[in-house]
Inverse folding.
């Protein structure tokens, strides 16, 4: 049976880097943006647009009230992306042992007994990490003040939480939904940290 | 400067065992019930009585209303125990590197940059652990049904949470107050687990 590690993460906490290093150490496949690219291939939507909605709680344009009952009509485009995302995550997990970042993979693959990692840190560390990586992954914008960047980080994490809570009925970042929650604020050497996490995983 | 590891833990999750093994691996002092015994020495109260109130939010028998203001009068015996507990925890941390279990040590020693561990697990694992250890530490009572034992575990954790939340103003078991939260439900070999946690600590 394939082994699966899922990584939930606060924006700027280094969850992606930790997940990637973990996959390298363990010789597992690594899936993150690959999921977006695969959805784009299978739908007529652009990768950029999918990136925008793939970890967002759907905006419900037509709430319907019937007597005392509230019906939420989730738009088709959003449902399609979510369905593709579910299928792709299941396919990836069935292919080989892997690390999957975000996208409720811990919940989608709950019957496969994944090792569920959650990565977080304090705001100061997240700001520093975003500043350091802004030219690469984070596109944080050198022009943003600390206050603006804090607001942006909080907004992204709020979206991730809303999305996770909406689709899983669980609480994002709450310990009971994970096997290991790690605060990366103390660490600068992510290589050593990933090795130590791999050791916990392999216990 | 002494190194400090604090261990918050759900009842039955093996936090004490993990803390003790961690102290052995790292060559740190280990404090848990020693704190109770030291308070008993310094006060005229029995260790059993102190054990009962040392991790309990105080019962406030005399709430006083003055106009719109509410005054909570915390009983003297409880204040004394809490003050002694704070002093002893500070003394222990100043003596040598150590692992301290429970008792808001993470908050009391927050200026010493402790490594803050939180240990938890699912109810099934906690029941199994309590059953296995009932003759030793847990005194769970072989006569309790699973339902009764679940209720007892929930009650103890509720007390711990109330106590922690009352004295720290923080939320017990919520990730932002810890450096590492570990779900022990997957593990049976606590020796290997403690070695892996020590590796994360030492990164």
């Amino acid at each position: 049976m394939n082994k699966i590690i899922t990584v939930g993460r606060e924006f700027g906490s280094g969850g992606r880097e930790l997940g990637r290093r973990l996959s390298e150490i363990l010789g597992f496949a690594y899936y993150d943006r690959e999921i977006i690219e695969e959805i784009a291939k299978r739908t007529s939507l652009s990768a950029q647009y999918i990136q925008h909605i793939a970890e967002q709680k759907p905006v419900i344009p037509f709430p319907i009230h019937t007597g005392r009952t509230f019906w939420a009509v989730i738009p088709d485009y959003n449902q399609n992306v979510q369905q593709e995302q579910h299928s792709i995550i299941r396919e990836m997990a069935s292919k080989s042992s892997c690390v999957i970042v975000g996208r409720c993979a811990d919940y989608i693959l709950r019957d496969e007994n994944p090792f569920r990692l959650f990565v977080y840190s304090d705001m100061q560390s997240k700001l520093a990490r975003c500043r350091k990586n802004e030219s690469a992954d984070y596109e944080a914008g050198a022009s943003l003040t600390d206050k603006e960047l804090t607001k942006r980080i909080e907004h992204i994490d709020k979206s991730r939480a809303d999305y996770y809570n909406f689709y899983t009925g669980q609480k994002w970042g709450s310990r009971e939904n994970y096997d290991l929650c790690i605060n990366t604020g103390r660490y600068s050497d992510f290589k050593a940290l990933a090795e130590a996490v791999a050791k916990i995983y392999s216990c």
